Amino acid sequence: MILVTGANGAFGRRIVEYLLDRPAKLAVSVREPARAAALAAKGVDVRHGDFDVPETLAKAYEGAETILINATNYGSAVSGRIVAQLSPVLQAAKAAGAERLVITTWQDLDNCPLPYAQDFRTVEDLARNAFPTAIVLRMTYGMAASVARDVQWAEATGVLTAPAGAARVAPAATDDLAAAAANAVLTAAAAARTYDLTGPDAIDWNDLAGLAGVDYRAIDDDQFRTQAEAAGFPPEAVGMLLDYYAAFRSGWAGAPTTDLADLLGRRPASSLDAVRQAKSR
Fold first, then answer.
1. Per residue of the chain (281 residues), what is the pLDDT tens digit?
2. Measured between alpha carbons, how far is 134 from 118 in angstroms, rounded to an integer?
3. pTM, rounded to two decimals
């Protein structure tokens, strides 16, 4: 049996959709089972499992041979939060007798300067210790949507202004990432592997401006802070955004790999198409 966590979230649900037609018994672990009624109607075994309530996990994972720990909820910049949340999840998966583990983590961890992202390094180590053959999927999930906001802002203002300098990024399309995760779950490969799942090419903010039909004007951090706060962004959100732009300028997440194509068995959508798709959602 295959079990997917977080199946009520947008990304987890998309993975499950790719698995529905495969010849395998499928279960999902969700915080709110009532919200997964549509999956239950399709024959999916819906179970209550909450990362923040570890005592729910033993029953949720019972009988699962392969577990996908969908950790794309990157909602906390508090150091240690991800480790504290996922450690009991991995322990429960091991205790349940699962034979295979697939886990999603943070993109381009080897080059990421964001301090809280490094918690995912610890999580990866914990996963490999518990499951020596664990498959780790370092995701660019959410990146296309993030830079798509710059495009939308440019469409509204007539110019793309951002403190991105000459940075380049390689986001992947959400559908490609979900299909790749489903394929990783189904693969018969026993050997551990870490996949850096990027788009097939790198784009810059001039390319993003082209999507909006405007010019790109690089600005500095102070100019961006003034602009963002005037638009109503709270100071703490502005600080997080500036951290991201600084990470992009440092070279993080700017080098495409072929790992996504390897899992898909085809060429993925271009990085610009990934942003275009995210912008239209």
1. 999 999 999 999 999 999 998 878 999 999 999 999 999 999 999 999 999 999 999 999 999 999 999 987 654 555 678 898 899 999 999 999 999 999 999 999 999 999 888 899 999 999 999 999 999 999 999 999 999 999 999 999 999 999 999 999 999 999 999 999 999 999 866 678 999 999 999 999 999 999 999 999 999 999 999 999 999 999 999 999 999 999 999 999 999 999 999 999 999 999 999 999 999 87
2. 19
3. 0.95
Residues 140, 107: contact at Cβ < 8 Å? yes
Cα(196)–Cα(194) distance, integer angstroms:
7
Q: How far from 48 is each of 29, 62, 206, 271, CA to CA, in Å?
A: 6, 11, 46, 36
Whole-angstrom distance, CA of residue 244 vs CA of residue 231: 18
Round to whole Å and give the CA distance between 243 and 84. Answer: 23
| Residue 103 near residue 71, CB atoms below 8 Å | yes
Integer Cα distance of 95 and 35 in angstroms? 27
